Structures are given as C-alpha cells and as structure tokens.
Amino acid sequence: MHKQTAHIKENPAQRIKAKLALIPVLLGLGVTGVLLYNEFNPRAFDVINFTWKSALWLMLAWLFMVGRDLGYTLRLMILSDGKFRFWKALRVIMLWEFTSAITPSAIGGTSVAIVYVNKEGLNLGHSSALVMITSFLDELYFVVMFPLLVLLAGYHGLFDIGTTNSMAKELLTFSIIGYSLKLAWVITLVYGLFFNPRGLKWLLLLIFKLPFLRRWKHGANRAGSDIINSSKEYRNKPTSFWVKVVLASFLSWSSRFLVVNALLMAFFSIEHNLLIFARQLVMWIMMLVSPTPGGSGFAEFVFTRYLSEFIPVDAALIVPVSVAMALLWRLVTYYPYLFLGSIIFPRWVRRHFIK
Q: Do residues 32 and 300 make contact, with C-beta atoms less than 8 angstroms apart?
C-alpha cells in the first residue's frame, strides 16, 4: 500500500540547483558595480557615518527580517493545523524563499512550495490547498494595502518622482497592471477555494493538459480531488483561525517593507517614512515584470531611482549614496536566503529524493 501522505514520486525540484544562486548574485552585484563605476564620488563616504544610532537601527532592520520570517513560519504552523512544528515550518520557509530568490519574480517559489510542504508530511491535496491559501493571503495584503496607501500617501507622492511625466505614467501603468493581476488572482482563489473547488480542480486539469505538464495529469486529478476535501476543511474554520493567519501575513509583509525605513534611518534623518513604506509596495508590484531571478539587478536599479530622493544629501551624491544603500538593502533582505538556501536545499533533496 502507498503511504497516506501520497508523496510525489518524481522530483519536480530536480532542475533547481544550489549553484543557481550564483546567477542572481552576479546580476545584482554586476548592476550595482556598473552604477557605482559610472557615478562614483569619493565624497559619498563622508556622508555615511557609522554611529551607535546606526547600530541600533541596523539591529532593528535585522529584527524586522526576523519578523518577516516569523510571520511566515507562524502562518504555516497554523495552516497545517499544528502538523508542522516551528523548526519544520521554518525549514520549509527557508526553502521557499531560496526558490523565490533564484527564479524570476513572476514565477516565484510557489509552484515548488507544494513539493516542499508535501515532502514534509502533508498529503498532496492538503499541500496544494495550503500553498494556495498562502498565495491568497499574500495577494490579499497587496489588494487591501495598495489603495489604502495611495489614499494616505497620495498619488503624487507615489508616482511623481521628480522626473518626466512619462516616467510617472509608466510607473502608474506598471502598478495598475500588477495590481489588476493580483486582484484577479485573489478573486480566482476566493471563488475556487471557498465557493467552487470543483471549478478550481477543472482549472488545474486544464493547465495540466499542456504538453510539457501532461505526464502529471493523473497526479493533478488526485490533487484536485484532495483540494475539494481540503477546501471543505478551510471553509469550516472558525473566525479566530482566519484572524490569526491574516495577522501573521500582515506581520510578515509589513516587517519586510519596514527594513528599508530602518536602514535609511541608520544613517540619515528621514521624514517621509510612510511614503517610503508605500513606495516599496509599488516597487514590489513592479517587480512582477522582472525576468531576472529574485528581481536581481532590476530591484537595485529601481531602488536607486525610486527611493533616492528621500536621502538627504547633495544632488551630486544622490546616485552613489543610493546605490550603496541599495546594496546594503539587498545584503540584509536577499543574499542571506541565497546563502542559507544553498546549504539547506542540497541536504533536503538528498534526504527526500536520493536513496
């Protein structure tokens, strides 16, 4: 007899190699290096002074990173109905973040996350439903927060970045497209998971009719049936359950965006913290179009163009200082996942796939 957990027999993660982490590192450092080379000014070192205040704010930035992962981990523990203890949930999150870091932003780690969750002990249907719920919660944060922050920060504050009118229009266009995609996905998941799971199964089977996915169609059919059963479980969850997972999601995403505020406060006197926070939300939506792994290169470039005006230095120093801050931001929020993932991932693959 097969195990009840219905583990995936083939290895959908086999194309993921730890050495792929080198690609986003080279891309990110390459773009940063080019920007620094073109705009290098030795006076930039004079305005970045490390003090006790800097140490405290940098420590707070790391605490926000802890909050980001803690929120994700707690949410996974709740969604798994306690089947995942803290360290197991944290391991899955680290694997998930690593996959997101080495794949294009539009793809992310969600598709492989089902494999991670399934191999850690949940059946395939429960794993699929859990990952879809996390996707729903992540996108719900954007769907709710984006219009709220536009209202609070104002249209001009978010999209008028002191450049041409066409640049503002392009930023607005990217944001509207990204927001529309997220809203459409949220509506699809709400309808499929809570109202018509059979329709979601039909969509899943339709996707697995594609030539390069067809060989997994039987597994998709079984997963679709399991999703229907898991959907019934989630629909019957009490209000307290949903309050907990929404709060965990809010903790994670808000902590993620507050890192930049803390990093800037470590070296400068910053006044427009709400606007900086709001612009990061727009940056994240724009990164949906990035074809590079984890938005490498694109993220650093957008940071220097979209957040540089909040750095209170002379105009001649804006670009080199903002490039340095962009590199620090990625060192805190991105590269640690590449480093940890490149250690954890090969061991995880050997334990679950290589006998």
A: yes
Cβ burial, residue 218 (10 Å; 0-12/13-18/19+): exposed
Residue with tokens 């944060």: 141
SS3 of 318, please? helix
User: What percent of the chain is modeled with pLDDT above 90?
Assistant: 20
* Side-chain half-sphere CA neighbours of 101 within 13 A: 30
How buried is residue 304: exposed, middle or buried, by Cβ count under 10 Å (0-12/13-18/19+)?
A: buried
Per-residue CA distances from 340 to 6, 93, 101, 224, 250 (Å)? 28, 11, 11, 33, 24
Alpha carbon 73 to its chain centroid, in Å, reads 14
For 209, the token pair is 């009719």
Residues 301 and 323: their CA atoms lie apart, in Å, by 8
Q: Is 123 helix (H, G, I), strand (E, B) or coil?
A: coil
Predicted confidence at residue 246, as pLDDT, reads 95
Cβ-contact 108, 294 below 8 angstroms: no
What one-letter code names the amino acid at 30?
G
CB 256 within 8 A of CB 64: yes
Task: Output the CA–CA distances (angstroms, integers) from residue 126 to 5, 117, 152, 221, 336, in the order listed.
Answer: 9, 9, 39, 14, 30
To the question of pTM greater than 0.90 for the whole model, the response is no
Q: What is the pLDDT of residues 322-340, one digit of tens each?
A: 888 888 888 888 888 888 8
3-state secondary structure string, 200-236? HHHHHHHHCCCCCCHHHHHHHHHHHHHHHHHHHHHHC
Domain assignments of the chain as residue spans, ordered by start: 57-286
Tell me how many degrees the CA angle 177-132-15 measures, rounded to the nearest 5.
85
40: pLDDT strictly greater than 60 = no
Q: Which residue has the higher pLDDT, 60 or 101?
A: 60
DSSP β-bridge partners for residue 104: 293
